[in-house]
Amino acid sequence: MPFEGLSKIWMNGSFVDFEDAKVHVLSHVVHYGSGVFEGIRCYNTERGPEIFRLHDHIRRLYDSCRIYRMRPERSIEDFEQACIDSIVENDLKDCYIRPLVYRGFNTLGVDPRKCPIEMMIAVWKWGKYLGEDGIEKGVDVCVSSWNRMAPNTFPAMAKSTANYMNSQLIRMEAGVDGYEEGIALATDGYVSEGSGENIFIIRDGRIITPPLGASVLPGITRDSLMTLAKERGYQVTESRVPREMLYIADEMFFTGTAAEVTPIRSVDRIPVGNGARGPITEELQTAFFDYLNGRVEDRYGWMTSVYGRKDAAKDVVGAGSATA
Ligand code: PMP
Q1: CA 51, CA 123: separation in Å to the nearest integer?
Q2: d(Cα 264, Cα 139) in Å, to the nearest integer?
């Protein structure tokens, strides 16, 4: 069972059994990629299960909807609550949350506006995306022969299902050639991002990440890492990164909800630094994981308690002591 811990899926306002969570094959989304989604994580912190930056993720989801002229019936607050309820309904503590808004069944004309806007949320246990080992030792990556989307084609700021056809080309090519991930350049030849991660480069103690204008998704982990790095006194700049910077960086890492903070140990078989996780990467990983696991105070208000909210659907025994 690839979706461990998942028994009920939230669809348009009610929970349905896993087996019954279906869409018609003639739904617009199936043919034309008319969907936008999010990937969010809930951590079983020392304070009990808490969702990392739930509001920022759902806000980005609604931004994606706006870009594609999709108007969800539900408010952001309602949909956030549905994410919380989904975790409670499935009795999970530590999980990945996948909300999706998509155009359903009506017409297969390219103009989708007659198709209903449907919403779903699934939650399940998902381990380290780039491997348990990857978090400590780093991953081997290549520069992809595929570019990210040109800015006036597919909007990179929208997390649309269609964008992931591009991601799949990058990821498959990397996998077939024996790498764990690919880094794509933007159409101007400057570094953009991984197939499902933003990228950070460190040289002489300074931290650089490509700007939003480089066809990157405005990653929420990216923003978190920038905040934590600045807090520690590092200079963090968003600037264009020429490809060759990847070969002369001291340290490099990916950020993403699934990948969390994963060091990169080689690019095109050229070792990054000495080929092991670097000290700044390790320091930032520690700061990040301490935050996620509730080992430090939630000083930025990034965490949303799951079982502690009075309006959660039901109580779960052993869900931790967070009841505020
Ligand atoms: N870029 C792409 C293409 C992604 O799919 C993701 C994962 N959502 C990211 C960056 C990282 O974004 P986040 O930190 O918000 O998960």
Answers
A1: 12
A2: 5
Is 159 among the catalytic positions? yes
Q: What is the pTM of this model?
A: 0.94
Torsion of CA 209, 213, 217, 222, to 10 degrees: 30
- The Cα–Cα gap between 119 and 189 comes to 37
| Residues with a CB atom less than 6 Å from ligand 1 | 39, 167, 193, 196-198, 217, 219-222, 255-257
User: pLDDT of 30-86, one tens digit each?
Assistant: 999 999 999 999 999 999 999 999 999 999 999 999 999 999 999 999 999 999 999
Nearest CA to ligand 1 atom 12: 219
124: helix, strand or coil: strand
Identify the residue whose tokens are 């301490």. 290
Asked whether the beta carbons of 100 and 113 are under 8 A apart, the reply is: no
Q: Which residues have CB under 8 Å from 300's CB, separation 6+?
A: 227
Distance between CA atoms of 177 and 85, rounded to whole angstroms?
A: 42
CA of 195 to the centre of ligand 1 (A): 8
For CA atoms 88, 261, 228, 47, the dihedral sign is positive
Q: Enter the tokens of residue 147.
A: 């570019």
Element (H or E) spanning 144, and its range? strand 139-147
Q: Do residues 194 and 141 touch, judged by C-beta distance below 8 A? A: yes
- Per residue in 138-157, pLDDT tens? 999 999 999 999 999 999 99
- Kindly report the CA angle at 257 between 127 and 317, in degrees rounded to 5? 55
- As a whole number of angstroms, the distance between CA 61 and CA 266 comes to 33
Catalytic residue among 93, 159, 230, 314: 159
